[in-house]
Structure formats: structure tokens, C-alpha cells
Amino acid sequence: MAAPGRRYVVRLFSTLQSLPARRAWHDAAPPRDVLLFEHEGGRFFAVLGLFCAGQGVFWASLAIAALARPPAPTRPPDAESPGRGRLDLCSALWRYGLAVGCGAIGTLVLGAGLLFSLRSVRSVMLQAGGKQVTLTTHAPFGWGAHFTVPLNQVSCMAHRGEVPAMLPLKVKGRRFYFLLDKAGHFPNTKLFDNTVGAYRSL
User: Fold this and answer.
1) Alpha carbon distance 35, 39 (integer Å)
2) 178: number of CA atoms within 13 Å, CB side?
3) Residue 186 DSSP class
4) Which residues contact 80 (CB under 8 A, 6 or more apart)?
5) Using CA atoms, how far apart are residues 22 and 10, in angstroms rounded to an integer?
6) For residue 113, how many other CB atoms are within 10 A of its CB?
7) Contact at 8 Å (CB) between 151 and 126?
């Protein structure tokens, strides 16, 4: 009589042990789409896009102006200076150097603004079933751009409590980190920590 009772106790104990695991799996695999993160900063990124575009136009105009050859002063044919060729060479080198510098500054400003807009995350959505995640970035001028990747290709490089401002997110096959502003809203922190906020070796 003791054997059936013992088997019942063992079966009951194993069932109770499996309940938290089943519940955790159910939480990580929701039956519908779940919003995990949201940060509305469209106005800031619109202003940032206009600023970068204005800087690009400004530095490009300076580069074009530096390349433009200044008008040569009118001199008599017999008033040729012996050092004029050297002065012309120095002037040309200075103009080309200034043009390259202005172009480099404009390119850096545009590239930094574009990269920051494309890597700043507006929202993170866990798809139904918990296998796919959709990331929406602000993109230039705050227009927004989204893409969907498998959850196992997303790794959070730090815990939410370890960083002061930006949470770095690594996506396999994409250069640079995606940034989640901690000033945003995390509607479901537990599900975020167990899915997108978990560290994975990619």
C-alpha cells in the first residue's frame, strides 16, 4: 500500500516543480504582440535632422567656395614677380586643404546624425509566440524605420540597472549597437528582462 502512495507523492511533487517553468515559458511566449519598450522623441530627431542637413549644406558651400579660384589681379605684362609661382602654389594648396577639411567636417556631422537616428530605438515589440521581435528606430527626421529579427539574434549588453542613460542592444548581422533610452517606458519589465533584455552570445 505504501508504494502507490509514494508514487502519488512523487508525481505530485514533480508536477508542482514544473509549474513555475511552464508559467515562465508562457510569459515569454505571449499569445499576442506585446509592447516591451517605447520612447517618443520624434520632435528631437526632426530637429536633429534639420540641424544635420543645415550643417551639411553650410560646410559643402564653404568647400565649394574654397575651391573657387579667386580672380587674378590685373597687372602689366612686364610686371611679373619672380616669386609669383610659389605664391600661387601655396594658395592652391591652402584652398584645397580648406575644401577637404570643410568636406570632412560636413560628412562627419551628417554621418553621426544619420547613424544616431538609425540606432536610436523608438519601440520594441515582442511578436506573438515569443520567437520574433520588431525594433522600430527613429530614423532621420523621426520618420521611423522598423525591422523584425528572431529573438535569439538579439542580445542586451547590460542590465537596465547597470547603465545610467542608454541601454545597448546588439543585433546579429548589424553593425553598431542599438540604443534604448532609459527615459522611455517599459510596460512589462519582467518580460523585457527575460526576452530582449537577456544577454546572449552572438
Assistant:
1) 11
2) 27
3) -
4) none
5) 18
6) 20
7) yes
DSSP bridge pairs for 135? 124, 147
d(CA 71, CA 13): 94
CA torsion sign for 34, 36, 41, 46 is negative
> Which residues is 178 bridged to in the sheet?
169
To the question of pTM greater than 0.85 for the whole model, the response is no
Tell me: pLDDT of 122 over 80: yes
Tens digit of pLDDT for each residue in 166-184?
A: 999 999 999 899 999 988 9
What are the two backbone dihedrals, phi and then psi, of residue 138, each rounded to the nearest 5 degrees? Answer: -70, -35
Element of type H or E holding 150: strand 145-150
Question: Strands of 178-181's sheet, edge to edge?
Answer: 154-156, 166-171, 178-181
**Residue 164 grid coordinates:** 545610467
